[in-house]
């Protein structure tokens, strides 16, 4: 008997709630909000068994003046990095942060596939390179050998049907476009167990100039990213400790070093701050392209060192946008019925607050209580107290949580009064009916105040564990 059948039999004696409908999270967006200078598409190449399901996406940067496109990336820290992660990191390192194409396949992760996996990833790069228009895309007078990054997602340990994928890449040329339908097709080609394509766009202003951001991502299971910067010479060191893939494009002009710095900051506060099931993938990757297609002629690219004011505005816009994309992944978590914001404040540092929020968000006991709509705040405290905090900057001694100063509050999303369940270490006389009322809502917040150990504050976004999650993952390969 399969695991999903066992789960269904065990669950039959309990009240089950289906995942809430999610179709409203995908909607048409005006073509004017998408960045200039990109063409893209999605198609069915035969990786997935069902012909109606798209499985290959191609994204090309084609700015009108043929200028180089800056690129940045954050990759999984998993030791078993998939072939597309290794290949893309190599290309960014060789090119110093410049590429013009991205190719994505879903249905097979091309992870733990040995030499054949590497050869297949390089073949996808070469085939997409061939679609790029002739360009003076050089840096220091040197021609780039490869200008395409690659992504794969799906089952681990299986090799790609590479001939089908290469044929699909060749065929994509006839449907490349820049309108909403093209962006939508590309977003659909990212999907595995996702229930809707995750696509967003926005217009923003830096220094009086209007630019655009657009991006797509995928993920519903195997979601607890811990991504670090690509291995370019200007990469910053690590700031923090189904697969998540994402690609963001902008028509602003940004230097590669500043693009990488902004992306790492944004990812730490978005994609590195979500969890569906606490499982880090071998393929997690986020790419960011900036082609400067909307930048005024002869303008200077945004740069962190030479133009910090414009850079900070761009970094904030990127971080907010990345958070919007990341939250869609949690909302589409496999079997999820709740979207829960975990906020931790009063920590010694942002890193400490982030670590505590991560631990709460990945606790199986907390997540099952969320599904059961049970205000079992003791589980939140147990998770909180298991995280070692940074040593004191003044004494060097380990920072220890004082249980008599910790407070926990359940905060409804509808604007009604929050419900304190623990105040300065003292349990409140909790109105269980009110707690249940809040936790039956699809959205709410768990707020943990560590009692003034510092001004560190961070948020994590997570969901509950349901019977459906076990059922989906019990029979994932079949």
TrEMBL record:
One MF term in GO for this entry? L-glutamate N-acetyltransferase activity
Give the primary localization class. Answer: mitochondrion
Q: Catalytic positions? A: 243 (nucleophile)
> Mind telling me which Pfam families this protein's record contains?
ArgJ (PF01960)
Q: Supply the SUPFAM superfamilies for this chain.
A: DmpA/ArgJ-like
Q: Which family does it belong to?
A: Belongs to the ArgJ family.
Give the PANTHER family listed for this entry.
ARGININE BIOSYNTHESIS BIFUNCTIONAL PROTEIN ARGJ (PTHR23100), ARGININE BIOSYNTHESIS BIFUNCTIONAL PROTEIN ARGJ, MITOCHONDRIAL (PTHR23100:SF0)
What protein name does the entry list?
Arginine biosynthesis bifunctional protein ArgJ, mitochondrial
């Amino acid at each position: 008997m399969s695991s999903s059948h066992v789960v269904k039999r065990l669950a039959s004696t309990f009240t089950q709630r289906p995942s809430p409908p999610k179709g409203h999270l995908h909607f048409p967006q005006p073509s004017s909000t998408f960045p200039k200078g990109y063409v893209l598409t999605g198609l069915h190449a035969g990786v997935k068994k069902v012909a109606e399901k798209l499985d290959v996406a191609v994204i090309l940067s084609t700015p009108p003046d043929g200028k180089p496109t800056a690129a940045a990336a954050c990759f999984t820290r998993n030791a078993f990095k998939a072939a597309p992660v290794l290949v893309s990191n190599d290309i960014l390192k060789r090119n110093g942060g410049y590429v013009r194409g991205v190719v994505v396949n879903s249905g097979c992760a091309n992870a733990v596939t040995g030499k054949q996996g590497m050869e297949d990833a390089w073949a996808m790069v070469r085939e997409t390179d061939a679609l790029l228009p002739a360009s003076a895309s050089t840096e220091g007078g040197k021609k780039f050998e490869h200008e395409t990054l690659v992504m794969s997602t799906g089952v681990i340990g299986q090799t790609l049907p590479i001939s089908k994928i290469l044929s699909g890449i060749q065929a994509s040329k006839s449907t490349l476009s820049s309108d909403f339908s093209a962006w939508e097709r590309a977003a659909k080609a990212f999907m595995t167990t996702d229930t809707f394509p995750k696509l967003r766009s926005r217009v923003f202003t830096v220094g009086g100039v209007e630019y655009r951001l657009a991006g797509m991502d995928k993920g519903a299971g195997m979601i607890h990213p811990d991504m670090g910067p690509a291995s370019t010479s200007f990469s910053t060191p690590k700031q923090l400790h189904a697969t998540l893939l994402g690609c963001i494009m902008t028509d602003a002009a940004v230097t590669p070093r500043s693009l990488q710095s902004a992306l790492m900051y944004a990812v730490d506060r978005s994609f590195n701050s979500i969890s569906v099931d606490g499982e880090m993938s071998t393929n997690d990757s986020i790419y960011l392209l900036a082609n400067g297609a909307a930048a005024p002629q002869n303008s200077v690219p945004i740069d962190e060192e030479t133009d910090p004011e414009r850079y900070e505005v761009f970094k904030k816009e990127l971080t907010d946008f990345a958070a919007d994309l990341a939250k869609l992944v949690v909302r589409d978590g496999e079997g999820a019925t709740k979207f829960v914001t975990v906020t931790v404040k009063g920590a010694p540092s942002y890193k400490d607050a982030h670590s505590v929020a991560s631990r709460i968000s990945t606790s199986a006991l907390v997540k099952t209580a969320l599904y059961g709509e049970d205000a079992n705040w003791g589980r939140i405290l147990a998770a909180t107290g298991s995280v070692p905090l940074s040593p004191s900057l003044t004494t060097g001694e380990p920072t220890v949580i004082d249980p008599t100063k910790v407070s926990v509050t359940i905060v409804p999303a509808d604007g009604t009064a929050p419900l304190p369940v623990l105040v300065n270490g003292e349990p409140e006389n909790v109105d269980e009916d009110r707690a249940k009322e809040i936790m039956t809502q699809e959205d709410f917040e768990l707020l943990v105040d560590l009692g003034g150990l510092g001004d560190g504050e961070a948020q994590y976004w997570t969901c509950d564990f349901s019977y459906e999650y076990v059922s989906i993952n019990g029979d994932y390969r079949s």
